[in-house]
């Protein structure tokens, strides 16, 4: 290893790359990480963190309305987008500093340049410098996909949404997944009229059907519009800067100020030199890896979104940790991909872990389904007609809880704790044996009949 410039060269300082670099260095490896944009990657710079802060910001719209019933006289309020935008961006910069410090404190060299692979043990920086390393880790993440239609260049993606100069009045969002539904709630809260245009007739594929239906119904009640089975045809830019969006069928064109594509994220391997170096990529361009995150070239590994397994930050972090433990820490272990909890930070948020009802019926045959369909106490007093739905899926033969799905205030917070019990394979009886904590929304989980 000593013949190489570094023991480990990481490309990409995002969720997976930062963890892998820091832990490998702590094990004594000589580590450098190349980052072409900002340390922290998607989650910190233009994903989970700024998104969640905008979700908080937009929720004030409803909280301020509801305050009246709780005795607060709130004078007419207005929303100042540049003020929120800039405080969110300042927080992002603060976090970027923390991530950079952590790497530097672990003696990881940060190289603020784009890098590509030139061989099993060599990389080239944008500046032309060649570097050798015993092991190379690809942690370059993913990049927003745009439909291939005339005028698509007029649309933005989530990358740009955090930097808008003004808050648009009319927003069209293409896609029906995580980003579409989260940003629909964000823009709607800030007063924009939002239309989601989806190519299929379902939102949030993979989540339990009843929970998705509830989000759809609540979103429509709030005034978010949905256009289903509507592929994108073309986009025109008008003289006043607005956009006209043409979708399939006879549907009337949509006029908007901002069009945002939330149509998935592709592994970021373009121009990385991987195929030329003999690294196998799949049809989507993802690095094909084994259970130890190793590619078809034994000295090259990959973690996170670039492998297109589960595009979530905690998964990328765990993969980075497992890589470092296995390759540099002499503590080999693998990730358990079963029962990964996830959430959609919509208004209201939804969250789930384990099998959906449909998956459980297909996989296990007989299952019992318990639901609680209720109005949160706070919503009742506020006069907000918005119902939460919790759904527990139980394997009939064993009484084991195999899935838990919910939509309602604080659902992600509740589900993270509940996921421990689901992952541990506890029976429904064990949940019933736990005394309720009253008054809470989460108590519904131990009172399901
Ligand atoms: C809007 C949005 C919201 C999200 N919200 C959530 C959420 O709430 N919860 C959740 O779990 N996940 C969320 N995600 C997903 C999450 O951000 C990703 O799964 C996670 O960041 C993946 O980590 P990664 O290390 O694989 O890649 P990234 O974090 O994307 O890091 C890759 C890094 O590599 C750099 N890079 C790329 N190519 C090169 C190169 N050639 N040379 C040098 N550097 C390079 C990039 O600049 C980037 O910094 C969200 C994503 C988006 C877009
Ligand atoms: N809360 C979270 O954890 C969170 C939040 C945001 C993003 N993410 C991660 O980032 C990933 C990317 O988010 P996303 O919302 O872009 O992807 P997604 O996979 O959730 O949704 C993509 C949507 O775009 C549609 N689509 C795909 N190609 C299309 C095309 N050519 N034309 C029209 N529609 C098309 C799909 O039908 C789907 O509805 C997610 O898969 C998720 O893993 C997670």
UniProtKB/TrEMBL annotation:
Q: What stretches pass through the bilayer?
A: none
GO cellular component terms attached to this protein's record? cytosol
Binding of FAD, residues: 52
Q: Which domain of life is it from?
A: Bacteria
Q: Which GO terms describe its biological process?
A: cell redox homeostasis; cellular response to oxidative stress; glutathione metabolic process
Where, by residue number, does NAD(+) bind?
A: 175-182, 264, 305
The cofactor binding remark recorded in the entry reads:
Binds 1 FAD per subunit.
Q: Which segments constitute the FAD/NAD(P)-binding domain?
A: 6-320
Q: List the disulfide bonds.
A: 43-48
Q: So which cofactors does this thing need?
A: FAD
Quote one Gene Ontology molecular function term.
flavin adenine dinucleotide binding
Q: Which SUPFAM superfamilies match?
A: FAD/NAD(P)-binding domain, FAD/NAD-linked reductases, dimerisation (C-terminal) domain
InterPro entries noted in UniProt: FAD/NAD-bd_sf, FAD/NAD-binding_dom, FAD/NAD-linked_Rdtase_dimer_sf, GSHR/TRXR-like, Pyr_nuc-diS_OxRdtase, Pyr_nucl-diS_OxRdtase_dimer, Pyr_OxRdtase_I_AS
Q: Which UniProt keywords apply?
A: Disulfide bond, FAD, Flavoprotein, NAD, NADP, Nucleotide-binding, Oxidoreductase, Redox-active center
| Entry EC no(s) | 1.8.1.7
What's the subunit arrangement here?
Homodimer.
Q: This protein is called what?
A: Glutathione-disulfide reductase
Which organism does this sequence originate in? Alterirhizorhabdus solaris
């Amino acid at each position: 290893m000593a013949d190489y410039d570094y023991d480990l060269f990481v490309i990409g300082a995002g969720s997976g790359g930062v963890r892998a670099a820091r832990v490998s260095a702590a094990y004594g490896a000589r580590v450098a990480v190349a980052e072409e944009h900002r340390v922290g990657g998607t989650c910190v710079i233009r994903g989970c963190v700024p998104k969640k802060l905008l979700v908080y910001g937009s929720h004030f719209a409803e909280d301020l309305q509801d305050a009246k019933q709780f005795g607060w006289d709130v004078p007419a309020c207005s929303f100042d987008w540049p003020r929120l935008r800039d405080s969110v961006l300042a927080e992002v910069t603060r976090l970027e500093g923390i991530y950079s410090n952590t790497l530097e404190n672990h003696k990881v060299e940060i190289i603020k340049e784009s890098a590509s692979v030139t061989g099993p043990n060599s990389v080239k920086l944008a500046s032309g410098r060649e570097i050798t390393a015993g092991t190379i880790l690809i942690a370059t993440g993913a990049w927003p996909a745009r439909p291939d239609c005339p005028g698509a260049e007029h649309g933005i993606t989530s990358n740009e949404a955090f930097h808008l100069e003004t808050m648009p009045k009319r927003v069209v969002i293409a896609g029906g997944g995580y980003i579409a539904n989260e940003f629909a709630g964000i823009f709607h809260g800030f007063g924009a009229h939002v239309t989601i245009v989806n190519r299929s007739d379902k939102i949030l594929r993979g989540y339990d059907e009843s929970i998705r239906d509830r989000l759809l119904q609540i979103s429509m009640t709030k005034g978010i519009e949905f256009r289903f089975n509507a592929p994108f045809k073309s986009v025109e830019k008008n003289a006043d800067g607005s956009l006209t969006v043409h979708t399939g069928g006879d549907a009337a064109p949509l006029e908007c100020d901002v069009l945002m594509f939330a149509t998935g994220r592709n592994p970021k391997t373009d121009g990385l030199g991987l195929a030329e170096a003999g690294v196998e990529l799949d049809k989507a361009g993802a690095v094909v890896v084994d259970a130890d995150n190793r590619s078809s070239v034994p000295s090259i590994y990959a973690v996170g979104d670039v492998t297109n397994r589960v595009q979530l930050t905690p998964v990328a972090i765990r993969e980075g940790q497992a890589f470092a433990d296995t390759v540099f820490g002499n503590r080999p272990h693998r990730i358990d991909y079963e029962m990964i909890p996830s959430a959609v930070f919509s208004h209201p948020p939804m969250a789930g872990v384990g099998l959906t009802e449909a998956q459980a019926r297909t996989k296990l045959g007989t299952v019992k389904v318990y639901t609680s369909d209720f109005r949160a106490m706070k919503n009742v007093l506020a006069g907000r007609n918005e119902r939460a739905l919790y759904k527990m899926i139980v394997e009939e033969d064993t009484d084991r809880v195999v899935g838990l799905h919910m939509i309602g205030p604080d659902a992600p917070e509740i589900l993270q704790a509940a996921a421990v019990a689901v992952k541990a394979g506890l029976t429904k009886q064990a949940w019933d044996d736990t005394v309720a904590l009253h008054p809470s929304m989460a108590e519904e989980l131990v009172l399901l009949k």
